[in-house]
Specification:
The chain contains nine helices and 21 strands. It starts with 9 loop residues before the first helix and ends in a 12-residue tail after the last helix. Helix content is 28%, strand content 30%. The strands form three sheets. Strands 6-2-1-8-9-20-21-7-17 form a nine-stranded antiparallel sheet, sandwiched between helices. It has a nine-stranded antiparallel sheet with strand order 3-5-4-18-19-10-11-16-13, with helices on one face. Strands 12-15-14 form a three-stranded antiparallel sheet. β8 and β9 form a beta hairpin. It is an alpha+beta fold. The relative contact order is 0.21. The structure holds the ligand C=C(O[C@@H]1C=C(C(=O)O)C=C[C@H]1O)C(=O)O. Its EC number is 5.4.4.2. This is isochorismate synthase. Keywords: Isomerase. It comes from Mangrovihabitans endophyticus.
């Protein structure tokens, strides 16, 4: 990173995070706390964002020469990228860091939240029929859960996620309108540091088990699953194809490897390359790749139409990207998954799964329930879940 401020303890920055007043992004390479807004870009044409951000950074003072923010899933939905008044840079939160934190305010109480399981099962079954009929080859279908949580404060949850999900990209981003986007994504869309670009797409998943033998069995089964490897290949090939025009010496693993989060196993591919044009920023790479088949599908146009037909809610910032980009073009953008939004309309938690020809609706329901579990566990004991497929 080429940020102007000296490195301080990332745990301190997470403790100083105040939703509504600041945004925070913690990755394996460091923690950023963005306070106030000197300027912002909220354009709804994502292809224009890199130029707008570059112009904003060129005019910025030396103290905050980086933008921090989030870009939604839909290509025409307004982004929120802020040039902060004060940008503080710190170390990465250490694994299991004891971040001083109050217990997360209970968002739910009693019992599992009622979910429109039948609606999701039907949507997956319909997608499998569409795939077999040749309409598209992969689509990612998500569920959204709405929870009542008056006065909810995301800050303790963000701190708990940063302490508990090492290797992840933890964020609490003020997205405007009194809304905070927060979560801990395991998936790196793309990062640029100097001449090098790296992406680490994930696709193909299995819920983890608390029993070590069963957990190891599930990991091995995932690694050898033909259906999951097929599902993964769409993503790894699309990301490699997306980076190729910008890079030389692109290295694409022939075989995926396992990535673990506290709740899930994933198949992942770490793709690296050397950038040919030094003016191509991390944000430009990210907007060129987004949305990958990890959150949309293949081919992208038909998958988008299927998502619009089969998901009864607006994805908003879910399945978009979240991160930062500095004046030198360096930056990190994570795929906005394992996340929630908190605002005047309550809490919304999101999770999706890739559907291919061999997908079983009940297995996808189990997978999305496990993925929702990342955020539900961090949110604390259950209360009034309003649920909904149309959250
Ligand atoms: C869409 C999500 O996750 C994505 C889908 C995956 C899959 O289908 O196996 C795995 C990781 C992510 O790329 C989500 O968590 O909401």
């Amino acid at each position: 990173m080429t940020l102007a401020c000296p490195a301080i303890d990332g745990v301190e920055l997470l403790s100083a995070y105040r939703p509504g007043l600041s945004s925070v992004f913690a990755s394996p390479s460091g923690t950023l706390l963005a306070e106030g807004a000197e300027a912002e870009v909220s354009g709804g044409v994502h292809g224009m964002l890199p130029d707008q951000v570059e112009a904003m950074l060129t005019g910025a003072g030396p103290g905050a020469r980086a933008v921090v923010g989030a870009i939604p899933f839909a290509p025409d939905a307004p982004a929120r990228l802020v040039l902060p008044r004060l940008l503080r840079r710190g170390t990465a939160p250490p694994a299991g860091a004891a971040v001083p934190t109050a217990r997360p305010a209970p968002a739910r109480a009693g019992g599992a939240p009622p979910c429109d399981d039948d609606g999701y099962l039907e949507a997956v079954a319909r997608a499998v029929r569409d795939i077999r009929a040749g309409r598209y080859t992969k689509v990612v279908l998500a569920r959204a859960l709405r929870l009542a949580a008056p006065g909810f404060d995301p800050a303790p949850v963000v701190r708990a996620l940063a302490a508990g999900a090492s290797g992840s990209y933890t964020f609490g981003i003020d997205v405007g309108g009194g809304q905070t986007l927060f979560g801990a994504s395991p998936e790196l869309l793309v990062a640029r540091r100097g001449r090098y670009a790296v992406a680490h797409p994930l696709a193909g998943s299995a819920p983890r088990s608390t029993d070590p033998a069963e957990d190891a069995h599930r990991a091995a089964a995932l690694l050898s699953s033909a259906k999951d490897r097929h599902e993964h290949a769409f993503v790894s090939e699309a990301v490699a194809d997306g980076l190729r025009p910008f890079c030389r010496a692109l290295r694409v693993p022939v075989e995926p490897t396992l990535t673990a989060t506290p709740t899930m196993w994933h198949l992942g591919s770490r793709i690296t390359g050397e950038i040919t044009d030094p003016d191509v920023s991390a944000l430009r790479l990210a907007t060129a790749l987004h949305p990958t088949p990890a959150v949309c599908g293949s081919p992208p146009g038909a998958a988008r139409r299927a998502i619009a037909e089969l998901e009864p809610f607006d994805r908003g910032f879910y399945a978009g990207m979240v991160g930062w980009c500095d004046a030198a073009g360096d930056g990190e953008w994570a795929v906005t998954i394992r996340c929630a939004t908190a605002g005047p309309e309550g809490l919304r938690v999101y999770a999706g799964a890739g559907i291919v020809t061999g997908s079983d609706p009940h297995a996808e329901l189990t997978e999305t329930t496990a993925k929702l579990g990342t955020m539900l566990a961090a949110l604390g004991p259950a209360d009034r879940a309003l649920t909904t497929r149309g959250a």
